[in-house]
Design goal:
alpha/beta, 3 helices
Length: 196
């Protein structure tokens, strides 16, 4: 056992090569793709992503993805020549839900009036490296689930980050999601996992 400078025994070194932030991000993106393909449940996805973000070695990362296909699609997709994705979601005394595999445009607006909203970006295909979401929530609750490995910027009254499992500092080339919102007698909650 290695002795630390203060005379206390140090932890035994973990087996395997120490993981880099880029390797953690790659594992998280692979898990996100598997979640989008319905290979993982919400609980499995949440547990594995949290483990990937704090993994110390590549061996730990390999264990989290060992039962998944070898190749996973990238988080960012090029905006192609097909139909452009919808830029608006509006609910009046009802609810909106965008979840699973859906295409997220560079600018997206959500308006919820006396209802509820869910924008689940964990399996979404991003069309831009910088995405701006404008959310308005009147007497409503809008929940926005963000994937690991993206840089999130929040602004506006009633917009709040929920939970303590925000990912470590994303890599330099990570997509940016700017969430601008206004909540009146309601809330806009941004989190990495569904509410319990």
């Amino acid at each position: 056992m290695i002795q630390a400078g203060n005379g206390e025994p140090d932890r035994a070194p973990a087996s395997g090569t120490l993981a880099s932030n880029a390797e953690r991000d790659a594992a998280a993106h692979r898990l996100q793709a598997a979640f989008a393909e319905h290979r993982l449940t919400d609980e499995e996805f949440d547990q594995r992503v949290r483990s990937a973000l704090v993994a110390r070695t590549t061996t730990e990362l390999d264990g989290l993805t060992a039962d998944l296909p070898a190749v996973a699609p990238a988080l960012l997709v090029a905006s192609g020549t097909g139909r452009k994705p919808g830029r608006f979601a509006i609910a009046l005394k009802s609810s909106i839900s965008r979840a699973g595999r859906w295409t997220l445009p560079g600018r997206f607006t959500s308006v919820v009036y006396k209802g509820s909203g869910l924008l689940d970006l964990r399996a979404a295909q991003f069309t831009s490296e910088e995405t701006t979401i404008t959310a308005l929530s009147y007497k409503s609750c809008t929940e926005i689930l963000v994937p690991p490995g993206v840089r999130v910027e929040l602004a506006g009254p009633g917009v709040s980050a929920i939970g303590d499992a925000w990912p470590a500092e994303p890599s330099a080339g990570a997509p940016v999601v700017r969430i601008r919102g206004v909540a009146y007698k309601g809330s806009i909650e941004v989190r990495t996992a569904p509410s319990a």
